[in-house]
Amino acid sequence: MLHIFQRQLHRVLLIAASTAMLAACNSAPPSTTATSGDKPSAPTTTSPDKKGKQDIRVQLPFLKQSLDAPLIVAIEKGYFAEEGLNVTYERGFGNADTISKLGTGKYDMAFSDVYNAMEFNDKNPNDKILAVAFYQNKAPFSIVTFKANGIKTPSELVGKKLGAPAGDGPRKLFPLFAKEVKISPDSVTWDTMEPKLRETFLLQGKVDAVSGFYTSVVPSLIKGGKTMDDIQIFFYDEFGLDFYGNGILVKQDFMNKNPEAIKSFLKAYFRGMQEVVKDPSAALDLVVSTDQSKLMDRDAEKLRLKLAIERMYVTPEVEAAGFGGADQKRLEKSIAQTVEGFKLKPATAADLFTDKFLPPKEQRMVPPASDRKPLL
Description:
By secondary structure, this protein is an alpha/beta fold. It has helices at 2-27, 69-76, 79-82, 95-104, 114-123, 169-172, 174-180, 198-203, 214-223, 252-257, 259-278, 280-289, 298-313, 316-321, 328-342, 349-352; strands at residues 54-59, 85-90, 109-112, 129-134, 141-146, 161-164, 189-192, 209-213, 231-235, 247-251.
C-alpha cells in the first residue's frame, strides 16, 4: 500500500509544480525582442523609433547593370530604409519574362515596360499591371548597323538581312518603324538567334543590322572592337515612335493594398536617381562594387550609363516636369501604336499608368547642371 501512496503523492506534487510554473509564465512581463529580420511576426513593445520595415521584392529587367544605379544607390545609402522599407531584388530575364513573374505575384514590383504589360492586361482585366512611374523617359528601341555596311539611312535597309531574337520588342515594332520611314516591312529578311549571339552575328557579318536596345547592343559592339565612329544607330524615337522606356510596375491588387509603400518606394528611388545624375561616376562605382560575380565590365557599364543619362533619364521633358511622370498625349499615341503593332485590344493611358503615387514635383526634379559631375 505504501508504494501506491507514494505514487499518488508524487503525482500531486508534479501537478502542483506545473501549475506554479504556468502561473509564473502568465505573470511575466511581455517580451520586447522581435523575430530575426526587419519585419516582426507579431506586435511587440519595442520603442516607436524601431518600427518594423516592410519587405518589398523587386525584379530587374535583366542582369544587374549600371542602368539599375538609382535602385542600388537608394539601397546602399539607406534611402529605402529611411522610408521604412526593406528592398531586395533579383535579376530578370527580359521584359516579357519580368511581366510574367510580376503577374504571378512572385515579386511586389518590377522594372519593365507598359507595352509588354498590355498583353497581360488583356488576359487579366481584374488584376492589371500598371506603371506607377517611368524612370526611362525614352525607350532604347533602335536598329544598329555599321557605317561600313553602307546603310546611312533607314531606307537603305531595303533588301538587307536583319538579326534579332524572336521576342525582341524593336523587332516586333519594326512594321511600325518601316511605316514611319516609308519602306515595306517585307523589304527586309530576318535571322533569328539567341540574345547573347545578336552582336556576334553583326560583328561576324552574318547579318547587316540588328534590332534591339541600344543600351545593350552598343556597349557589346564596343567591347567587340568597334568604336562609336564605326556604328550607325537609327533611334526609333527619332523616326515617329516616341515611346516611353521602362517603368516601375505593380499589380493592381498590390497597389490597392499598399499605397503608402509605393509612395515611399518612389520617394527613395528618385532620390537615388538624383544622386546618379549628380555624380554618375560614384554611382557606377557603387554598382560595380556590389557585383558579386566580379565579372562586370566597368568600361561597358560606363558607356551604358552614359547613353542612359543622355538619352533616357535626362530629357527636355524631364528637365521641365521632373523624373517619373508622363505626358498624356505622348503616352496615348505610343499605346495606340502598340495596339496596332502587336494587334492588341484598344487601351488608354489610364489603363496602364497612374501618377498618384509620385512624390511632389520639387522632390524629383533634375539636379541643376552646375551640380552635375562628369562621368569618368
